[in-house]
UniProtKB/TrEMBL annotation:
Domain of life: Bacteria
Pfam families associated with the record: PAP2 (PF01569)
Name used for this protein in its record: undecaprenyl-diphosphate phosphatase
Gene3D superfamilies (UniProt xref): Phosphatidic acid phosphatase type 2/haloperoxidase
TM regions (residue ranges): 46-67, 79-97, 173-190, 202-220
E.C. code: 3.6.1.27
Length: 228
């Protein structure tokens, strides 16, 4: 039960920041002070885009877990299907609450990266996606050890998620809520041993391959990076 305490605390803090937005604004200004290149930050932040994650990151991590014998193999379906459930939940919450983004608030004087959206702020879909894939994959792949690699992956995940605030796409509270929801979801998956159900199901892996191919097709044929 103690594993739920920190994510729940983070969720409470994110809600508090939403209720008292002046503090969230100050945190936004702090993060935006690191805005140094729209080109660079726009590309880094899209590493959290669900289409990019499905098309490239998940296949890479799964192949990595297959070829490196010292870590556990993680099948695509083990990440993709729970990820879809989490993504649908996050989108549902975003649409129900429909909080304004920084770009939808008058008087917010920061640098924005294009495109600038005005609504559907809480929680951040990009942040939830990269948090889930990074931390869930590490939970499954690393039974023990690899401490340095854990820190490196965790740092990269946090940097990618933080760019959502730096470019003005989200508030700090949005990203913090995404972290909290994701970690709670991972603990539930771990408790129910979902990975044992999904990790060796060949039929789900076949479906996963089609979803990966569909994501690759979408990236090269549609403007998916401007609308997720």
């Amino acid at each position: 039960m103690s594993k739920y305490y920190f994510p729940l605390f983070c969720l409470i803090v994110s809600i508090f920041l939403k209720l008292f937005q002046s503090l969230d604004v100050e945190i936004l200004y702090f993060f935006n002070s690191f805005f140094f290149s729209e080109f660079f930050l726009s590309h880094i932040t899209e590493l959290g885009n669900a289409f990019f994650i499905f098309a490239f990151l998940i296949p890479f991590l799964c192949v990595l877990s297959l070829v490196v014998k010292k870590i556990n193999y993680v099948s695509p379906s083990t990440i993709i299907f729970p990820g879809l459930i989490l993504g649908l939940f996050v989108q549902l919450v975003k649409n129900i609450l429909n909080f304004p983004r920084p770009g939808g608030i008058e008087g917010i004087n920061i640098q924005f990266a294009e495109p600038v959206f005005q609504s559907l702020s809480f929680p951040s879909g990009h942040a939830a996606s990269i948090f889930f894939v990074g931390f869930w994959w590490m939970r499954l792949a690393f039974a023990g050890g690899f401490t340095a690699l854990r820190y490196i992956i965790s740092l990269l995940v946090i940097i990618i998620a933080s760019t959502r605030i730096i470019i003005g796409a989200h508030w700090f509270s949005d990203v913090l809520a995404s972290f909290a929801i994701t970690m709670l979801f991972i603990e539930i998956l771990n408790k129910w041993k979902i990975d044992l159900l999904l990790n060796k199901n060949i039929y789900l892996d076949v479906i996963s391959i089609f979803l990966i191919l569909g994501s690759i097709y979408s990236i090269f044929n549609f403007e998916v990076f401007d609308h997720i």
